[in-house]
Each structure stands twice: as structure tokens, then as C-alpha cells.
Amino acid sequence: MDALYTAVATANGREGRAVSSDGLLDLPLAHPPVLGGDGRGTNPEQLFAAGYAACFASAMGVIARQERIDVSEVSVTAEVSLGKDAADGGFGLAVVMRAEFPDHLQGEAGRALLEKTHAFCPYSKATRGNIAVELVVE
Questions:
Q1: Confidence (pTM)
Q2: Fold of domain 44-137
Q3: Burial class (CB in 10 A: 0-12, 13-18, 19+), 71
Q4: pLDDT tens for the chain, residues 1 to 138
Q5: Which of 1, 79, 88, 105 has the most CB atoms around its CB within 10 Å?
């Protein structure tokens, strides 16, 4: 692959900081309270959810333009869950990708757009076969 852009970020664990090479991203990291942390920072799951939702919404825009579909009122929410991986006793991720569609994209039209977006989105391609992703039309 010929890279069009390369993002670079450095982190020093779940209790520390995440910083991008250009300094635009500079965030404290912390375990969420439900996992025993103080919650005074973001966490990798939140960062992944934000990135995946943004990428998915952008990919949907590309597909929608090709098909002349108005997605100006669509919002995309990624729910990233961290849980135990029964296969090795470690941890794993699962994603629920929710697309809130206006009336003209309810039913099969919205489902078709969601499926095409999932096939096209770079994050979806990267996670395919590795992370369970459930697609939900709202």
C-alpha cells in the first residue's frame, strides 16, 4: 500500500498520556471507574470508538455521494466493549456500530447503505475477522 497519510502517536500505558507527533492530540489516559480507575482520563476504547465512528461516517459519505443519497442528517455512534477473551483468558473487543438515519433511510435503504459502508470503511476492513461488529440502524 502506498500511504497517503501516516498518523503517529505515543502512549505509555493505560495510566499515562497519549500524544500525537504533531501535538494536536495530547490526552491523559486512565482506567474507567468500572475497571478500577479514577476516570480522570480517556482510555483506548474511547479513542478507538471515536476514530472508528469518524472513519465510518466519512466512508458512508463517500458511498452516499456515489449513490446520490443525502446523509447530511446521519449520525454514527461506535460502542466499543472490552471483555474477557474465552480463547486465551486475555481481553478482546466487540463493536456495535449504530447509524441514526432520517426517515428516508429507514428500512432496507438504510441497511443497504450500512452494509456497503461496512465493506468500504478502512477501520471495518482492519477489524474484519478479528473483532465482532454488529451493525444497527436507528
A1: 0.93
A2: GMP Synthetase; Chain A, domain 3 (3.30.300)
A3: buried
A4: 899 999 999 999 999 999 999 999 999 999 999 999 999 999 999 999 999 999 999 999 999 999 999 999 999 999 999 999 988 999 999 999 999 999 989 999 999 999 999 999 999 999 999 999 999 999
A5: 105
